[in-house]
Amino acid sequence: MTFADEGLEKWSEDLVFEVTAERIAEYAAATNDPIEAHRSGAVAPPVFAVVPTFMSMAPAALEVAPVELLMKLVHGEQDFHFHRPIRPGDVLTCKAKATGYASLSTGSTVVIYAETRDSGGELVNEQWITAFFRGVDAGRTVGELAPEHALDASATVGPPVAEVVQHVDDDQTFRYSPASGDPMPIHLDDEIARMSGLPGIINHGLCTMAFTSWAALEQFAGGDVTRLKRLAVRFAKPVLPGQDLTTRFWDLPSNDGERAAGFQTSVGDDLVLRDGLAVIAD
Hints:
20% helix
């Protein structure tokens, strides 16, 4: 399968997104976020940052990967770098580009870089999205891949500094889909999900990530989203509606003025999120 090198570093068209308190509050409710500032729409939860950029991601990946591979695309990793929170009234401009791709033993990845700027041109956040194409061999590795955030096994040997249990509601995907703007049928249609080789409707990976974001904020930042500087995960296994998530956090070495926590999220004995990293300003 031929991947197109000429599609690398090709920016998508600018997307303009006007932020409202209502949309922020809808997203917070759809991710069971208990933080009042999020629930009221005063300031956006961290993973809300994906909402303005969502429609630019797949086109950027498909500048490199053949379009017929779209049904083999799954979200492999997500890495947010926050410069400031999103607030109601912001008029955001988003764009994305593929920066590189890699051939792996189980498939291939395309790395997408997305940036969001405010009406004054200031950078609000940066995102690295790793799209994974199952069972596809790109043949080689080209370009710039995503920043590392692997959680070394030695970091998880001791007891966690925090452990949070959360429940994914039976109707979670039906609430998250309109709030996020993600209409993918594997999250909404049981028959299509099973035809795709899944056990049934699965939770959106970014919804699961959003759960971990508010867990990290409550445990380490007093619920203050302005202190979160980076949040990254690797999606390992699907989460089903009705399941319980357990997220465990461990302290990692960090820079002065920051606290870094590595984390992983499991359903029973199965890890569903690996290589989690949250960096929080003191």
